[in-house]
Structures are given as C-alpha cells and as structure tokens.
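Now for a sample.
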Amino acid sequence: MRFDDRVDAGRRLAARLEDFRDDGPVVLGLPRGGVPVAFEVAHALGAPLDVILVRKLGVPYHRELGFGAIGEGGIRVISEDIMRMSRVDEDDLAEVQRAEEAELARQAERFRGGRPRIPLAGRTVIVVDDGIATGASASAACRVARAEGAARVVLAVPVAPPDAAERIGPEADELVCLSTPPLFSAVGEWYRDFSQTADEEVVDLLRRSARETGRGGDESGGDCPARTGPVELPVEGGRVRLPGDLDLPAGAPGVVVFAHGSGSSRFSPRNRAVAAALGGAGLGTLLFDLLTPEEEADRANVFAVGPLAHRLTEVTRWLRRHVALPVCYFGASTGAAAALLAAADAAEEHARGEGEDITAVVSRGGRPDLAGDDRLAEVTAPTLLVVGGRDETVLDLNRQAAAALRCENRLAVVPGATHLFEEPGTLDAVADLACAWFTGHLAPPPAPAG
C-alpha cells in the first residue's frame, strides 16, 4: 500500500480508527511529519489535537544510543539497564537532560504559541506518526503519554515494518497500522510525496484544530463551541437542543458545569455570580438549561433527578468531545442531586474503562439526599457540600449525605446564611469555597521524582 502524501495517509488511517470516536480520545502527533497525519485523524474523529514532544536522552559518547527520554511537565523515562551498561552516571544524565529540556521548551513554545497542553489523565490517547522505522521515537512517545496519566495508549501509523509490534512491545496498548510491507527499508518509500514538514505547517495545523475544537481562536464550526458565548447542546440523540453559555478563559485548567435547582435556569443570578467568580479565577464554566420550556411546564420533570442526571451526563459527553479539559460539577438545590447521580454514573463508566470520572463536585444548598444513599456511596469525585447555617432542615440532610459518601468530602457551613444565601457576603463565601475546592483538585499532580 502506497500513500499519495501525509494527508491521504491520515484520512485512510482515520477510517480505521473510527471505533475510538466514542472514547473521546486525544490525538497526539509526533512532530514534524506525524502532525499532518494526526490532523486528519483528529478532524475525522472530532477529537482535540496536540503534539507530543519527546526528546531522546543519548549516551554522551554515543548519542544515537538512547538511555531514556523526557517529555513535558517533568516526565522522564529511563532505562536503568542501558545506563548501567553504558556507565552513564547521574552527572552525565543531568548534563544531557538540561540540553534536551531547553530544546523541548523551544519546541513547545514554537508549536503551541502559548496554548496549554491538553491534559491526558484518564483519557484514551492516540499517538500518531507518519510511519515507524526503528520505533524509538514512537515508543518513547507512548511511554511519556502513559507517564502523563493516559488510561489507554494507541499507536497509529500508516506504515511500519512487519516486526513493528515486537519493537513497540508493551509501550502501547494497541498498534493500528495500515500496511506492514515485508520488504521495508524506509518510511518515505511508501509515500509518493514525502517532502519535509516545516515548523510553520505544524503551527498552522495545531491552530486550525484548536479553532475546530474550541480550544483557541475565535472561530468554531458546526456544534463546536467558541471560546466564550452561547452554545446549543444536542441531547436525546440530537432531537432536543438546550441553550447554554460557555466561558473558557485562556489556559483554563478545567470546566465547571452548573446544574441549577428547581424553578431556575441558566440565568440563575446566584449561579451566575458564582460562575463569574470562578471565571475570574481562570476556570471555565458552562451554564445551561436542563429542560426545554415545554418540559418545564410539567412540574414533575423539575424534580425528576434521575432524568436530569442523565441529561447532565449527555451534556458532559458533548463538552468532552469539544473541549479537552477536566470537568467538574456545581449543583444547586435539586441540581445537586442530579450532579451527584451523574458523578456516580461517570465513576461507574470510568471503572469499566469506558469514560472519564468527574474531577470534583460542589453542592450549594443542595438536596443530595434525593440521590439516595446507595448512589451517593458510588461517587468517587471529591465533594464539597455548602449549606447555610440557618438552613437547618437542609443542613441535617447534608450531614446525613456526608455520612453516606465514601469519597473525599467536606461539609462547609456558612454562618448566618439561609437557603438562598441572600444575606450580605454569604454568596461570596460560597464562591470562595467553591473556587478553592475546584482549583485545589484541578491542580496538576507533582512531577514524579527523578
């Protein structure tokens, strides 16, 4: 099998990767030649695209022999056996690493232009290159992706030698390759056009993909959200479209999805006040209407926390397809029960390897008891229950809910506040508590010790 060029190879590869669409994958291209292939894959799957930057750590007197690799965020993978056999000591390692870290930083700034890296924790990651020769770079990229927390690593290439699977070994969970010709000598011979990919092309493709997925720029296509503004959220198989307001500050570490209470909407002044405070702290926010006007006319729908939780889950899946960031929930009143039910469902899917967990949950004056003790026990997302000190009935219900939760949780009581937090300063206290909870759990984990 021969390919016209990297675009042709990427489109053919994307067709083989269609089954991964529902996993909400992140596509990572190895610069430079792997990025045009990865762009076509990401575009076809509606997935976010980033580069995976790795630098080989070569033995000082034999740089072609790699004893390890480094990636961004302090990730380092080392072959202790090769270090020992090559007599590379800690001073040698430090010297080589310093030089490669400088080049890594240069590439990151050059290619991304200030956009943050896409978090990989808990995600299915598809590492794409234009082909495998020795497999050293691809293997290192897979190791770095796994070290960054990827739940599943798929290496996808158009062409590779027949023994590619053995060369990659355990570094990838799956290898997807279109062609393994027996007479293989070089990747380029299987392309009619294998001209060099310039830095400028990599930059342009990353920028175009970021616009498509709403990660950067001011354009969006189809259902993809803009960085800030109104969005329509398709649910129930696209038969229902819910209005929402999405705000994604540059460099946001995560997105907080709001679930309003009974009789409220995305225009809830209290939720909007909290959302403004979270946005001021650099967090993304999504406020949306859980129900259509026709559905709201039946008051039974307003208190049906199970269906509301299902709808919240659908919106979350839509958001993950378009924005590659961790998701948190902020629920108010009955919306808190829906948020906790949706978080329990996400935890169950995550345990089966079918999706991502919710990063954190905050309940304001919530009714978590409506979720039921059995389902509360299934929530794994760290949960903060915020209740007014004068909201005595709801406070008792939240104490019982805190006892039923098995995840990290905290009950925070705002002195002098009633159920709606209308007293001066009480809503500010809620916003401060929520901001601290979300930012604390969205903080990246410390880099592993070298």
User: Anything to note?
Assistant: The first strand starts at residue 26 and ends at 29. Residues 216-227 have pLDDT under 50 and may be disordered. The chain is about 40% helix and 20% strand.
